[in-house]
């Protein structure tokens, strides 16, 4: 492999415009396709095969009108006074009509009031048939009954419908203290698959009247679309990476090249994902993940190759073309292998059987593959344009006599070897302590209650909870289905059984199929969407039978809250399976790479410690609130369910990157005749500087996303940034070298029969040294 990559690198160096033109053409084609087809992002995180999704599928067939999501606006007064003053009622109804007029909102004012108008007309006709002397008394009695019903609702639930022109208007509820109004409306589809533009249209329709008559109009959390955008944090992360590159390579010219290749890798990788979607919505987390990992590995892979070329020029005094070819052949071999480990780890997510994760993983894996190809072709082409200027005349003149290995690295690795048992035990204790908070880790989707107090999502969430109850922030939909027609008595009985379930605040019928064989109910829990009691309620409802007996069909439950609960449970279920897959893959890959039995065990065990410590610290910050002010995190925020799995997949790939680069260098020195412990010191000293730079670059890129206003993106950024630092500095460059020093020669041992059947991948590039240099 090293010989093939050597020829590829040399060819790209000598004919740079071929590679540059090819990548420019690819970017141009992708840009054109995207410009024509457009970009549609969605926040949909549903998982096929879950109980909530199955209910949604049933509703789509039997009761399409009930398959849509629910939207809300909460309207409060700025001074805490009543919202039902005539002028304010008029504004509230203007908000209602404006929202109803948007494309994806079902219903209208007339439709909502029609049953009451018909009832009022019937009663008016009945009154008109009475003697004139009795009409006034009859109408007064009707008004008393209506007032009593309203008061009963207030007594039972703490709210009642808005009264407009003497008639109830159920879509708008008024709190008991009259300080808040809650406008609820149905959408023609679930909120998550909707695009940003559609949701923004609804929000703008309601907020257009914000401030009128002293009213504050706040959209509900479900209407907020988390739009991914590069902010100050992400830009600062890239700038830090640029500074580290220049310092690590000692040259502004050389330091710029990995940035260019990283940006190209992201552009092509994300471009392919969007273009291949053919105009269909793509989950917004998918491109964010691709940007994170594509930029990080794209920079790092090029860094390894450029660093190797510069060392070959400085130390061995090779001309730039030959050095570039050999760098691609040797460091490029490690890049290919490291990239494959990341790709395999990500593609392995398909094995857990969750289509949403599979799509995310395939896009991220594709971006990594692009980063590898860019590093092997575009980078040497750019080096060809730079030529001999990649190393200054002064650096070239002093390179042959300068000490090749970094003094600090040699001192640190020497300390590790001398104090190997102390280092091993001390590092293990630190990592284990960091992992302890995982015992209390809670998975769940963040709600408006965990958003910043200054955000409209938090203000809306709090206003709804305080005035109407936390359950209105996470309504459920229960579905009763049978092979025969439901009569009115049966529907009433089901409604009562739902209402009697512990944790249900109210339940009401919201629709029935044409054959009355499927009936949907709106269920308001007593607790909020992030409360464990709400998850328990969902399971209780799913055990509630349709006709009250113990051997008949049970209720189905769906809705955004139920979908999130099911996703959380599904992720918790498949996480151990994925860890097992990663462990097996890790053993096999490292066995092939280093032809060693113990090294795969050590490296994989170190990774398990890394991921547990990473999840522990993420739990400590986001869930327990430690240093929450520094990261703008509200205490009590659960970990998004996809974090452990996505974090494990990406972290495994990156961990193996560092393991491959460090271990291949140590093995190289061991095969050259050095003692096992001396090989640890020499190999560490030769490679650690660039690994340190790579780790800082990756952590900087990931850390730029920590301050995203979207909790999921912030958690992913924090998890990956902290994970890189823990794995690189505590595990790969401390714990593992100490274990190598303790094991000595056994580190590289494998039985002869196994060595005979394992291929020699030559990731150290030894075969290149046996070939004569190509004349430049």
UniProtKB/TrEMBL annotation:
Topological type in the membrane: Multi-pass membrane protein
Transmembrane helix among keywords: yes
Keywords: Cell membrane, Membrane, Transmembrane, Transmembrane helix
Repressor as UniProt keyword: no
A GO term for molecular function: transmembrane transporter activity
Protein name (database record): Membrane protein
Species for this entry: Agromyces bauzanensis
Regions that span the bilayer: 229-250, 257-278, 284-306, 327-353, 359-386, 421-443, 575-594, 601-622, 642-662, 683-707, 713-743
Record domain SSD: where: 270-385
A Pfam family this chain is assigned to: MMPL
Subcellular location: Cell membrane
GO cellular component terms given for this protein: plasma membrane
InterPro entries for the chain: Acrflvin-R, MMPL_dom, Mycobact_MmpL, SSD
């Amino acid at each position: 492999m090293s010989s093939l990559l050597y020829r590829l690198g040399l060819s790209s160096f000598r004919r740079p415009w071929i590679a540059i033109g090819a990548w420019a053409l690819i970017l141009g084609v992708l840009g054109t396709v995207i410009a024509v087809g457009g970009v549609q992002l969605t926040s949909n995180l549903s998982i096929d095969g879950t109980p909530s999704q199955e209910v949604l599928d049933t509703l789509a067939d039997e009761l399409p009108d009930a398959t849509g999501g629910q939207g809300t606006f909460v309207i409060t007064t700025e001074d805490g006074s009543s919202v039902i003053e005539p002028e304010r009622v008029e504004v509230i109804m203007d908000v209602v009509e404006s929202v109803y007029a948007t494309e994806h909102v079902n219903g209208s004012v007339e439709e909502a009031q029609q049953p009451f108008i018909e009832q009022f007309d019937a009663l008016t006709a009945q009154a008109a048939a009475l003697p004139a002397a009795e009409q006034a008394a009859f109408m007064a009695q009707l008004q008393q009954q209506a007032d009593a019903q309203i008061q009963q609702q207030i007594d039972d639930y703490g709210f009642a419908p808005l009264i407009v022109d003497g008639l109830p208007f159920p879509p708008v509820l008024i709190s008991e203290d009259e300080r808040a109004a809650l406008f609820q409306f149905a959408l023609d589809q679930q909120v998550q698959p909707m695009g940003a533009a559609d949701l923004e249209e609804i929000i703008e329709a309601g907020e257009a009247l914000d401030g009128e008559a002293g009213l504050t109009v706040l959209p509900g959390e479900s209407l907020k679309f988390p739009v991914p955008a590069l902010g100050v944090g992400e830009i600062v992360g890239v700038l830090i990476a640029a500074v580290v590159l220049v310092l690590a390579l000692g040259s502004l010219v050389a330091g710029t090249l990995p940035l260019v290749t990283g940006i190209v890798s992201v552009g092509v990788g994300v471009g392919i994902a969007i273009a291949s979607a053919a105009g269909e919505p793509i989950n917004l987390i998918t491109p964010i993940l691709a940007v994170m990992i594509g930029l990080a590995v794209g920079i790092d892979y090029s860094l390894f190759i450029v660093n190797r070329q510069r060392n070959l020029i400085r130390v061995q005094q090779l001309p730039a073309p030959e050095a570039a070819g050999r760098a691609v052949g040797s460091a490029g071999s490690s890049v290919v292998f490291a990239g494959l480990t990341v790709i395999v780890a990500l593609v392995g997510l398909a094995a857990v059987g969750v289509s949403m994760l599979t799509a995310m993983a395939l896009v991220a894996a594709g971006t990594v593959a692009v980063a590898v190809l860019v590093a092997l072709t575009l980078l040497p082409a750019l080096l060809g344009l730079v030529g001999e200027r990649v190393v200054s005349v002064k650096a070239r003149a002093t390179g042959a006599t300068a000490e090749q290995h970094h003094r600090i690295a040699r001192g640190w690795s020497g300390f590790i070897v001398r104090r190997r048992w102390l280092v091993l035990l001390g590092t293990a204790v630190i990592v284990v302590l960091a992992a302890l908070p995982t015992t209390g880790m809670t998975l769940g989707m963040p709600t408006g209650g965990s958003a910043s107090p200054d955000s409209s999502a938090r203000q809306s969430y709090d206003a709804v909870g305080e005035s109407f109850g936390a359950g209105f922030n996470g309504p459920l939909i229960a579905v009763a289905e049978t092979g025969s027609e439901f009569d009115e008595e049966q529907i009433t009985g089901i409604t009562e059984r739902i209402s009697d379930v512990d944790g249900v605040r109210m339940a009401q019928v919201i629709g029935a199929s044409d054959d009355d064989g499927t009936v949907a109910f709106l269920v308001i829990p007593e607790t909020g969407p992030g409360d464990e009691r709400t998850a328990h309620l969902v399971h209780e409802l799913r055990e509630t039978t349709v006709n009250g007996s113990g051997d008949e069909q049970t209720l189905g439950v769906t809705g955004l809250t139920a979908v999130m609960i099911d996703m959380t449970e599904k992720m918790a279920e498949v996480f151990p399976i994925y860890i097992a897959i990663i462990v097996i893959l890790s053993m096999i890959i490292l066995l092939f790479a280093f032809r060693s039995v113990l090294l795969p065990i050590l490296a994989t065990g170190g990774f398990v410690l890394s991921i547990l410590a990473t999840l522990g610290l993420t739990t400590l910050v986001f869930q327990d609130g430690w240093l929450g002010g520094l990261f703008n995190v509200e205490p009590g925020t659960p970990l998004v369910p996809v974090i452990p799995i996505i974090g494990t997949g990406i972290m495994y790939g990156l961990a193996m990157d560092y393991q491959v680069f460090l271990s291949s260098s140590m093995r190289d020195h061991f095969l050259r005749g050095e003692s096992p412990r001396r090989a640890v010191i020499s190999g560490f000293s030769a490679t650690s500087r660039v690994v340190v730079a790579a780790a800082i670059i990756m952590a900087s890129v990931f850390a730029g996303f920590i301050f995203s206003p979207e909790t999921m993106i912030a958690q992913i950024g924090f998890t990956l940034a902290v994970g890189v630092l823990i794995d690189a500095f505590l595990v790969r460059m401390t714990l593992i070298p100490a274990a190598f020093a303790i094991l000595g020669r056994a580190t590289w041992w494998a039985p002869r029969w196994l060595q005979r059947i394992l291929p020699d991948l030559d990731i150290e590039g030894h075969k290149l040294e046996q070939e004569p240099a190509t004349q430049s």
